[in-house]
Amino acid sequence: MINRKKQLPGSLVKDWLNKEKVSRGPEIDFMEYSTDALIQAAYVPSAYTADLCTGGTVYSSGDHESYPRTGAFDNDTSTLWSSDSRGGAYNTLIAYKFAEAKRIQRVKIIGRVGSPELNFKNFKIQGSNNSTNGIDGDWTDLSTGLNTSASIQWDTFDFNNTTSYSFIRLIGLAQYIAGVYYIQVAEIEMMEVSFQSYSESTTKNQGTYSLKALANQTVSLNGTLTKTFSPTKDLSGVDTLKFDMRASRTGSNIKIGIHDSGGTTTETTPNITVADTWGGVEWDISAVADADKDVIDSLIITVTNADADNTFYIDNFFAEYDE
Questions:
Q1: Both 76 and 178 in a single domain?
Q2: What is the distance between the alpha carbons of residues 285 and 258, in angstroms, rounded to a whole number?
Q3: Based on the structure, what is the number of domains in the chain?
Q4: Backbone angles phi, psi at 24, to 5 degrees
Q5: Which domain-ending residue is among 165, 192, 219?
Q6: 263 with 155: CB under 8 angstroms?
Q7: Secondary structure of 78-123 in the HEC alphabet?
Q8: pLDDT tens for residues 61-84?
Q9: Boundary of a domain, candidates 192, 214, 232
Q10: Backbone angles phi, psi at 223, to 5 degrees
Q11: Which residue from 270, 266, 255, 253 is spatially nearest to 297, judged by alpha carbons?
């Protein structure tokens, strides 16, 4: 008798046997995002660095003699920067030059106590790599149409930015008070995302792209990347989730979670045994009740160990039914 299984190439034998035992379930995410902007919009980060406005140089379009520009970056909300008196609602700016270019994605501002109306209104955040004084050079809009609150509080502005800039500036029209125009700010802070995703076209295991994530040492600990599913995913009857993973360091340094809208989060912590090598991860969710996995609304990636930098990749994430 001919053993037909032995006549098939090894990979085909594996596929033929698997078809007797399992069937592919719903896609979780094949990571087919063609740009950094698309994947960063899909996988929203939670972790930011501390304020990076230290050791740099401050520029402005003009200062009040009693309130110099450095007052906006001295980590003291009791001091302030005030523009010089403007003859009208003219463009007014304050710019920060970093010692090394930064990929700023969050700006925080607090206005002068008693004068929130003189804070930036309807303003822009811009970046430049060829300015010399915060005024000249080419500038890229990073976020526009922004407004601070009417009360004295920290206002936070998050925006997607994939480029490192040596200059970041805030620019908007001076505000009217008692016959003159000013902008006055007590403090400005700027941050980078400390745990971020990118679209990867070279290091991948299927399709055209994979998810690449950079977890920075120390500052990314407990940081998350969250993908929201709309519509939600029904994993009723699913016993196994599978995905491909690769990382620059070994060990169990991140965890993957799925969240059901009923409130249940199910998690796994993959263990990387060989650095910089793709491996398949099989995640057994057979013990999770269908009621806790029938309305999956998000996928969460969390950094659990950040004692060293880690670059990792995830690809080909899908569900599998046992038969």
A1: yes
A2: 10
A3: 2
A4: -70, 135
A5: 192
A6: no
A7: CCCEECCCECCCCEEEEEEEEEEEECEEEEEEEECCCCHHHCCEEE
A8: 999 999 999 999 999 999 999 999
A9: 192
A10: -70, 150
A11: 266
Instruction: For the beta carbon of residue 292, count every other beta carbon within 10 angstroms.
Output: 19
Model pLDDT, residue 26:
81
DSSP state of 277: -
Burial 110-135 (b: 16+ CB within 10 A, else e): bbbeebbebbbbebbbbbbeebeebb
Q: d(Cα 320, Cα 323) in Å, to the nearest integer?
A: 10
CATH of the domain at 113: 2.60.120.260
The identity of residue 169, as a single letter, is R
**66 and 82 Cβ atoms separated by less than 8 Å:** yes
The DSSP code sequence of 214-258 is EE-TTTTTT-EEEEEEEEEE--TT--EEEEEEEESS-B--EEEEE
Per the rule left: phi > 0, alpha: psi between -120 and 50, beta: everything else, 31 is left
The DSSP symbol for 286 reads: T
- Nearest CA among 216, 223, 288, 217 for reference residue 259: 288
Handedness of CA 166, 97, 148, 222 (dihedral sign): positive
pTM: 0.69
Say if residue 177 is in the same domain as residue 108: yes
Give the range of the structural domain holding residue 94, as residue numbers without chain letter. Answer: 57-192
Q: ω before 116 within 30° of 0 (cis)?
A: no
| Residue 248 token pair | 């620059």
Instruction: In whole angstroms, give the CA distance from residue 304 to residue 188.
Output: 30
Compute CA distances 279 → 6, 14, 235, 283, 305, whole Å. Answer: 26, 17, 23, 13, 20
Measured over the CA atoms of residue 19, residue 20, residue 26 and residue 28, the dihedral's sign is: negative
Nearest alpha-carbon partner for 63 in 80, 41, 45: 80
Residue 40 backbone zone (phi > 0: left; psi -120 to 50: alpha; other: beta): alpha
Q: Residue 18 — very low, low, confident or very high, per pLDDT cuts 50/70/90?
A: very low
Please state, for a pLDDT cut of 90, what percent of the chain lies above it.
76
